Amino acid sequence: MSDRSRIMLLDKKPDFSDESSRWAAVTVRNKAADDVFFYSVLTTGVYCRPSCAARLARRENVAFHENCAAAEKAGFRPCKRCRPNEEKREIRQAKAVEKACRLIEEAEELPDLEALAQAAGMSRFHFHRIFKQLVGVTPKAYATAHRAERVRAELQQSGSITAAIYDAGFNSNGRFYANTGKLLGMKPTTYRKGGEETEIRFALGECSLGSILVAASDKGICAISLGDDPQTLVQELQDRFAKAILRGGEGEFEQWVAQVIGFVDDPAKGLELPLDIRGTAFQQRVWQALSEIPIGTRLSYSEVAEKIGAPKAVRAVASACAANHLAVAIPCHRVVRNDGALSGYRWGVERKRTLLDREVDAA
Questions:
Q1: What own/partner pairs with CB < 8 Å and gap ≥ 24 does 79-83 have?
Q2: Which of 52-66, 168-182, 340-354 reaches the highest mean pLDDT?
Q3: Would the N or C end of the chain have less CB density within 10 A of its end CB?
């Protein structure tokens, strides 16, 4: 057999058109066979999807059916475990979580976990696990991020801060100010003024990839930029924090800069620094997933989308990577195209290639 023939056989997907291939799919619980056919078990009187986790029946007791109607016409009832006559579990879970997200977004007060789980038709533990698996954050974290976005929007539009507080769903000033640090990272009056009076420390340096700028708020590193022209990096920082007070960093901050430069040159050292990450709830889900990619490993945009439970959000994942302002600390350079080719990188494709090559050597 030629190499070409072997490749064609490997690439050929099973069509499950005969009983032999169908039984093989059942024995390995092949999800690819779901909804292509169903199987019934004579001794239990039920019919299932091929991927059903129920105990494997004896071959002589198994029959195959083209659809649910055929199985039920033959006298079999749907399995209560895999629910073959309903939507797939993944779809049911996604719809339940989407419903919970809408409840969180529309409620003035965050519904408790029990109420959300009941609305989703799950136990508290199961709902919490499924929600985090699909959304990437816990229900509480999702609610906090959504409330933060509402606050930011209202502070930009409302005529007064008091109006913004109530329009965002807080029914008292006290409750809002108790959460201000988590929601904005600054006082509401400061936020409305574009970060005025917020102090950002920064320092410029040189590393093996050219010029580097590191900046930090009182919460942690808020920018790491790479480039050819130091003044351009400073201008980009000024544009981003237009009304903040920019100061040269010193003391402990210089040690942080040294750590970043050391990590760029030698990824094996690792990088453990406090970060001030500013982005939407979706962007933060993506950035968290990027931070979990092991050094020396590359994922495609599609794989990252799968990782955060949003397989269709490939373009949104790419946009979140492009919106990252923390070079190397949030390793968006580890994300490549589906064919393995290097795609765009805020700080230049050649820098991306160099970082990846170094990480392969360090892994």
A1: 79/46, 79/47, 79/48, 79/49, 79/52, 79/54, 80/46, 81/48, 81/52, 81/53, 81/54, 82/48, 82/49, 82/51, 82/52, 82/53, 82/54
A2: 52-66
A3: N
Whether the per-residue pLDDT at 10 is higher than 70: the answer is no
When pLDDT is averaged across residues 55-80 and rounded to a whole number, the result is 94
Asked if 31 and 14 count as a contact pair (C-beta separation under 8 A), the reply is no
How far apart are the C-alpha atoms of 66 and 48, rounded to whole Å?
12
Cα distances (angstroms) measured from residue 172 to each of 92, 128, 161, 175:
37, 29, 12, 6
Catalytic site residues?
48, 332
The pLDDT tens digits for 145-193 are: 666 666 555 444 444 444 444 444 444 444 433 444 443 444 444 444 4
pLDDT at 70: 94
Q: H-helix or E-strand containing 222?
A: strand 221-227
Q: Is 281 left (phi over 0), alpha (psi -120 to 50) or beta?
A: alpha
175 CB-near residues (< 8 Å, 6+ apart): none
Please give the Cα distance from 261 to 259 (Å, whole number): 6
Paired tokens of 56: 């494997």
